[in-house]
UniProtKB/TrEMBL annotation:
<keyword id="KW-0456">Lyase</keyword>
<keyword id="KW-0472">Membrane</keyword>
<feature type="site" description="Important for catalytic activity">
    <location>
        <position position="236"/>
    </location>
</feature>
<dbReference type="GO" id="GO:0005886">
    <property type="term" value="C:plasma membrane"/>
</dbReference>
<comment type="similarity">
    <text>Belongs to the transglycosylase MltG family.</text>
</comment>
<keyword id="KW-1003">Cell membrane</keyword>
<dbReference type="GO" id="GO:0071555">
    <property type="term" value="P:cell wall organization"/>
</dbReference>
<protein>
    <recommendedName>
        <fullName>Endolytic murein transglycosylase</fullName>
        <ecNumber>4.2.2.29</ecNumber>
    </recommendedName>
</protein>
<keyword id="KW-0961">Cell wall biogenesis/degradation</keyword>
<dbReference type="GO" id="GO:0008932">
    <property type="term" value="F:lytic endotransglycosylase activity"/>
</dbReference>
<dbReference type="GO" id="GO:0009252">
    <property type="term" value="P:peptidoglycan biosynthetic process"/>
</dbReference>
<feature type="transmembrane region" description="Helical">
    <location>
        <begin position="21"/>
        <end position="46"/>
    </location>
</feature>
<dbReference type="Pfam" id="PF02618">
    <property type="entry name" value="YceG"/>
</dbReference>
<comment type="function">
    <text>Functions as a peptidoglycan terminase that cleaves nascent peptidoglycan strands endolytically to terminate their elongation.</text>
</comment>
<keyword id="KW-1133">Transmembrane helix</keyword>
<keyword id="KW-0812">Transmembrane</keyword>
<dbReference type="InterPro" id="IPR003770">
    <property type="entry name" value="MLTG-like"/>
</dbReference>
Amino acid sequence: MKKTVRKSQRKSRRGGRSKNGGKILLNAVLAAVVAAAVFFVARYVADNRMENFSEKYVLYVYPDMTPEAITDSLCSGAGALREGSVMRSAARENLSERARPGRYVIEPSYTAVYAIRMICNGWQSPQNLTLAGTIRSKGKLAAVIDRQMMVDSAQVAEALDDADFLGQYGFTPENVFALFLPDTYEMYWTASVKDIFDRFKKEYDAFWTEDRVAKARRQGLSKMETSIMASIVSGETLQKSEYPVIAGVYLNRLHKGMKLQADPTIAFCYDYTLDRIYRKHLKVDSPYNTYKYAGLPPAPINVPPKACIDAVLNPDTHGYIYFCASPAFDGTHRFAVTYGEHLKNAREFQRALTARQRERAMAAS
């Protein structure tokens, strides 16, 4: 009887230990599940709900960029707060297969997954394409576009010399400068050469309103001839305030049947390689030589600013026929009605120039 009681007690103790062990194991499993859930929820929140960047950053994604290069640039440029979130999001969104070239503005408020989705879906921000300053060659024009857009300068240069391509827009390789109106335009960084030319043609058509066309006719000019005259005015001065008066001078000469005798056209004949124009240069046989041939040259000699075009359409009314640089060397000019007045102005400028050169020579010795 006693043995039976002892066996029963031992079984009871073993059963209690077994039940306690099961509870411990169950609690451990539950704790692991909860920990895993907390871990994955924390990751989800970090990747999908939390701001992940410390500063605004413009990310350029090129066609040949690897996903590693993209995420490295994103993390370093935007100051990623949690790089792991960026890497996980890149893997989850399949960045290696879905990355699209573009210009992406990353804001500090963006989550990692949103930034990656921008790149995968091509949610670009527009780029400002600005034409400004003096553009006197196709190479310079192509380089200006190249610096601001994804297209290569060689592609742009090729288009600028492609007669068939330019013919779609009503221009030729010779007069294509007239198509480009200096200003700032919003377009996507990934725009193709055709996209860019399409946009400039749209802006050109919008600029040439009926009012401007009518003003050109009143001056006896076509749209192209207006741009040609504007390019000469642009070549003469950087002073915007002088555009209308210089435009008036050249229109006076043109309407009187005089040769324009514009030095910028001579500079164009020599591809702008001359430091100074001498009499021998005026003999160059070129249709752009306005000392040799009357009337306007065949095409613009640079990309004229809109203000120059409007100056030709709205010139100052005066009797000036001549002008020369001011002896003040401030970029302005002196104007004259008669040749005698012009010679007087020219002598004053030459005296000032000689004195200036003498002073510089003495300072250098």
